[in-house]
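Prompt: I keep going back and forth on a fold encoding question. Comparing notes only helps if you start from a blank page. Show me how you would write down a chain together with its backbone fold. Please set it down just below, with no commentary around it:
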Amino acid sequence: MIPSGLPARKTLEAEGVVVIGKERAQRQDIRPMRIAVLNLMPEKITTETQLARVLGSTPLQIEMTLVALETHKPKTTPEQHLLDFYQPFGKIKNQKFDGLIVTGAPIERMPFEDVTYWRELGHIFDWSNQHVHSTFNLCWGAQAALYHFYGIPKHILKTKKFGVYDHKVLDHTSLLMRGLNDVIAVPVSRHTENRKLDFNNYPQLQILMDSVEAGICMVLDPEKRHVHMFNHLEYDAETLKDEYLRDAEKGTPPLMPEHYFPKDDPTKKPISRWRSSAHLLFGNWLNMIYQATPYDINQIGQE
């Protein structure tokens, strides 16, 4: 369930993703799962489409609510788009949600406290404890959540980790990992990392996926129902290519994404080797929520 005018709608319908309106949803006589998306990415329409695509990979009814910060105005998204499709956090802060997704942001090399909206983001993280059943934090959003809740630092890499890397699934008994292959390909694009040593004092945090080349990919806090993924299974096949071309336009030699272009030739069309894993992972997360979230959504935060 997404707004009828959202640009993502045409793309999803063309791909065969089932998109429904409120009238049809009400006839199904079930409570939709409410998922809020705090979209911190500059290319908001692209990110909306990517997340709506994977959230739509389940037979469950999903109502997606796009949330905007109140202390930060994006410069790369038309203001009318934000007015039409985003709810300011202050407008939804008294509502309850089954899930919250916090995206990454292209500010990962900045100290957290130097981010202009750090205080508001911390308030949203704390708010989620009583208003959201489960959170899924992506890339910088995952690093920010781990720093906020545990003080776990991020570390700047000497060279950007950029490409598609094999990741090993470490615990197939986790509901999140059900059905995934032992090794899956995952797109990575970041200048920072989280290190295993920093998790030693937090036995409640379970590392579910990691990579010999790219490091930790996913961490789960079962008690808080927080999922932290540092990489990007939600990416389209050409997302890394677009990033590579943007870097090239800046006039400096761009970093070639590893294990991505066929024969490392940027003129060749890249292919997705992770699409099925993305749909399965987000479907697993939604199913995990569905199994435990209260039927009366107002009971969230009182479990």
Observations:
- The chain has nine helices and ten strands.
- Strands lie at 33-38, 62-68, 86-88, 97-102, 132-138, 155-169, 183-193, 206-211, 215-221, 226-229.
- The mean pLDDT is 91.
